[in-house]
Amino acid sequence: QTVVTQEPSLSVSPGGTVTFTCGLRSGSVSSSAYPSWYQQTPGQAPRPLIHNTNSRSSGVSDRFSGSILGNKAALTITGAQADDESEYHCVLYMGSGLWMFGGGTKLTVL
Amino acid sequence: QLQLQESGPGLVKSSETLSLTCTVSGGSISNSNYFWSWIRQPPGEGLEWIATIYYTGKTYYTPSLKSRVTISVDTSKNQFSLKLNSLTATDTAVYYCARHPSGSGFDIWGQGTMVTVSS
């Protein structure tokens, strides 16, 4: 069964840089999977951050950037701030109209 | 701007069928550039894509739920709907409706509706 992998948790110091990854248990992620990233705080709907690998959604700070790193999609936050502390989700297009989310990464800013 | 709003019962009984509706406002569900989806999130867990529909009625389902799920569209009401049958406690979740452009991820989300399956 195809599984989308994300780090369960990450931490970053205020002002620092952190990179999240989104991979496949078997195989590589490419731009043809239209990797997208979402930020979610408790009780709120996911907020779109990045779509199609590296396109920022409307209103998203340029501190957030997307890329392909090796065989995974990646989300990088630079200049981390306290309110970046959230859950981050990725989703990949698996083909034939099917999508799959990763398990999410909880970011702590400390 | 375009908005999505989920509606449906907050509490349903085990073995019954869940029916949810997503109302699209500020734009047309018949816009050929977009697809319409349901996504859920059990308490404390990650997101799960359930199903997608195009305004023509073309449907796509996640394999693990395909036998229990039906997604449909009503272009006259600018709505799309989800039916999930044979409910169990594991179907307890926040259910979101969302839009995605062709060849891109989910760009607009509803606020979500919590559904609890009781025995």
Explain this structure to me?
Chain A is 0% helix and 50% strand. Chain A is mainly beta and 110 residues long. The radius of gyration of chain A is 13 Å and the shape is globular. Chain A starts with a strand and ends with a strand. Chain B has 119 residues and is mainly β. Helices cover 0% and strands 52% of the residues of chain B. Chain B contains no helices and 11 strands. Chain B has strands at 3-7, 11-13, 18-25, 34-41, 48-53, 59-61, 69-74, 79-84, 93-101, 108-109, 113-118. In chain B, the strands form 2 sheets. In chain B, strands 2, 4, 5, 6, 9, 10 and 11 form a 7-stranded mixed sheet that branches. Chain B has a 4-stranded antiparallel sheet with strand order 1-3-8-7, with no helix packed on it. Chain B is globular and about 40 Å long. Chain B starts with a strand and ends with a strand.
List the helices and strands and how they pair.
The complex is a heterodimer of chains A (110) and B (119).
Chain A: E1 4-5, E2 9-12, E3 18-24, E4 36-40, E5 47-51, E6 55-56, E7 64-69, E8 72-77, E9 87-95, E10 98-101, E11 105-109
Parallel strand pairs in A: 2-11
Antiparallel strand pairs in A: 1-3, 3-8, 4-5, 4-9, 5-6, 7-8, 9-10, 9-11
Chain B: E1 3-7, E2 11-13, E3 18-25, E4 34-41, E5 48-53, E6 59-61, E7 69-74, E8 79-84, E9 93-101, E10 108-109, E11 113-118
Major sheet of chain B: size, sense and barrel closure?
7 strands, mixed
Radius of gyration of chain A: 13 Å
> If you compute it from the alpha carbons, what radius of gyration of chain B comes out, rounded to the nearest whole angstrom?
13 Å
- Overall pLDDT of chain B, averaged? 97
Overall SS class of chain A: mainly beta
Would you summarize the structure shown here?
The complex is a heterodimer of chains A (110) and B (119). Chain A has 110 residues and is mostly beta strands.
Features:
heterodimer; A: 110 residues; seven-stranded mixed β-sheet; four-stranded antiparallel β-sheet; 50% strand; B: 119 residues; mainly beta; 0% helix; 52% strand; globular
